[in-house]
Design brief:
With 555 residues, this protein is an alpha/beta fold. It folds into 3 domains: 304 residues, 3-Layer(aba) Sandwich (Rossmann fold), CATH 3.40.50; 113 residues, Domain 2, N(10)-formyltetrahydrofolate synthetase; 82 residues, Formyltetrahydrofolate synthetase, domain 3 (Roll), CATH 3.10.410.
Length: 555
């Protein structure tokens, strides 16, 4: 059993009614999923009240493959805020089964900063991912049925962009031919599977305001073209109503608790290197309605999840964050200083010094949004005092608060200093959010702004398909959508091998996908993996369940 599971098993969970009572939500309003999970009704959301409370984003520097502990820090900060007398709620994404059974494991925090029940949350939870998967695949079935039907829209099967999805890492499903076996089995065409977290339906769910908005966005999904080159959308197949019906319960946020019995709302789970990488707008507004402080996180480094959180989610929903926490670890900074991935637990002050430019760039990037960051050093037992001091001194030289976060080992107690730093930032009013760009700017200008200001590129180069896509986007009248750049999380650049703070590079856009339902364009740089594979030794091989139903091996 993992250390995280051992710690989680020592905790006596509070009935979910007690967690709801902390938010002044009566028992009668809850939709129960057992003793410790419940869904919250949408009518509880008060947008005016939500606009007056404090939204805090937790982001990070460019991560190592194992991640740098954003979720753990988010949960620890919420526990710390509650310990110093603030009413705070964590609002997080739901884990995807692919990483759970693959290499990263679960996404419920760690040590003494976890959300519980961790086994339930990491596995099927309340079925939201399954509902997204079914809604997505319903549209795929309707498309293939229309290709076969006498009521055809005359869709050109060669232009169909909509794949199927499954919430699992399975490389064998990436590319395939469907419709084989004769005329009764459909029209043969190239297709494949993405992982559910990469579905546009997931992105739509996470940006929708309510059920009507959900249906509108589902109807706006771009499918392809007819044989006479007219665009085809999901609404042309009358798919949006049935898809929204499948998402009837999935649109409701899920209430659980932290290890210290504080409220946590977990809802939605889009990828950050392909989609926007943040939880639902609905969950964020729910948290802001019910508590004074909401702490949320965005996937990967600030260049991906952070930028998209601000430029897509906040602009779309009219949210105005009050502060941002940048999580840094000694091991990640050493990695960006050229440290060997297998030796990151070995003290190496020189590598820390060399890796500091990556942290510095992410901190600089927050200022483009007029947000002043607090640096949280997520402490590991292998960190030396000299290494920690080097990071703290660098932050001090740049004029940023830097706090040692020891919440993995000490829970909320280890995050109280961070909580005080965040409250100070909020109460002094040093941040006043502004977006990086205006959605109405030309598409190329928006991409150039992100590439040069956030990534540090000298410019942008468009390959042939990307140039064709730009013309198509203009013709379809979609140029006013924000851009959600698909890029590696391993580097500030589009080359995963360029660690640290790369300079002198050009961002290469290979193609630009249309996610008109979600309401953004996806410039694709490099090879983006929408269906991951399992590692040589998957985490699944270490998992088991006993005769009493106790699961082991989750982490």
């Amino acid at each position: 059993m993992s250390v995280d599971q051992e710690i989680a098993r020592t905790i006596k969970l509070k009935p979910i009614q007690e967690i709801a009572a902390q938010l002044n939500v009566p028992e009668s309003e809850l939709e129960y999923y057992g003793k410790y999970k419940a869904k919250l009704p949408l009518h509880l959301i008060d947008r005016e009240k939500a606009s007056k409370n404090n939204l805090i984003l937790v982001s990070a520097i460019s991560p190592t493959p194992a991640g740098e502990g954003k979720t753990t820090t988010t949960i620890g900060l919420v526990q710390g805020l509650n310990r110093i007398g603030k009413q705070a709620t964590a609002v997080l994404r739901e884990p995807s089964l692919g990483p759970v059974f693959g290499i990263k494991g679960g996404a419920t925090g760690g040590g003494y900063s976890q959300v519980l029940p961790m086994e339930d949350i990491n596995l099927h939870f309340t079925g939201d991912f399954s509902a997204v998967e079914k809604a997505h695949n319903l549209l795929a079935a309707l498309i293939d049925n229309n290709l076969q039907s006498k009521r055809t829209l005359d869709i050109d099967p060669r232009t169909v962009l909509w794949k199927r999805v499954i919430d699992m890492n399975d490389r064998a499903l990436r590319q395939m031919i469907v419709g084989l076996g004769g005329t009764g089995n459909g029209v043969p065409r190239e297709a494949g599977f993405d992982i559910t977290a990469a579905s546009e339906v997931m992105a739509i769910l996470c940006l929708s305001d309510n059920r009507e908005d959900l249906k509108r966005r589902l109807g706006n999904i771009f499918i392809g073209f007819t044989k006479d080159k007219k665009p085809v959308f999901s609404r042309d197949l009358n798919a949006q109503g049935a898809m929204a019906a499948l998402l009837k319960d999935a649109i409701l946020p899920n209430l659980v608790q932290t290890l210290e019995g504080n409220p946590a709302i977990i809802h939605g789970g889009p990828f950050a290197n392909i989609a926007q990488g943040t939880n639902t707008v609905i969950a964020t507004r729910m948290g802001l309605t019910l508590s004074d402080y909401v702490v949320t996180e965005a996937g990967f480094g600030f260049d991906l999840g952070g930028e998209k959180f601000f430029d897509i989610k906040c602009q779309s929903a009219g949210l105005s964050p009050k502060a941002v926490v940048i999580v840094a670890t000694v091991r990640a900074i050493k990695y960006h200083g050229g440290g060997n991935l297998k030796e990151l637990t070995v003290p190496n002050p020189d590598a820390v010094r060399k890796g500091l430019p990556n942290l510095e760039k992410h901190l600089e990037n927050t200022r483009h949004f007029n947000i002043r960051p607090v640096v949280a050093i997520n402490r590991f037992t292998s960190d030396s005092k000299e290494e920690l001091d080097i990071i703290a001194q660098a932050c001090e030289r740049m004029g940023f608060q830097c706090v040692l976060a020891d919440n993995w080992a000490k829970g909320g107690e280890g995050a109280m200093e961070l909580a005080h730093a965040v409250v100070k930032e909020v109460e002094t009013g040093g941040s006043s959010f502004k977006p990086l760009y205006d959605w109405n700017q030309p598409v190329e200008e928006k991409i150039h702004t992100i590439a040069t200001k956030i990534y540090g590129a000298d410019g942008v180069e468009y390959q042939g398909k990307a140039k064709t896509d730009l013309k198509r986007i203009e013709k379809l009248g979609l140029s006013n959508l924000p851009v959600c750049i698909a890029k590696t999380q391993k580097s500030l650049s589009d080359d995963p091998n360029l660690i640290g703070r790369p300079t002198g590079f050009t961002l290469t856009v290979r193609e630009i996908e249309i996610a008109s339902g979600a309401g953004f364009l996806v410039p694709v740089t490099g090879e983006m993996m929408r269906m991951p594979g399992l590692p040589d030794t998957p985490a699944a091989e270490g998992m088991d369940i006993d005769n009493e139903g106790n699961i082991t091996g989750l982490f």
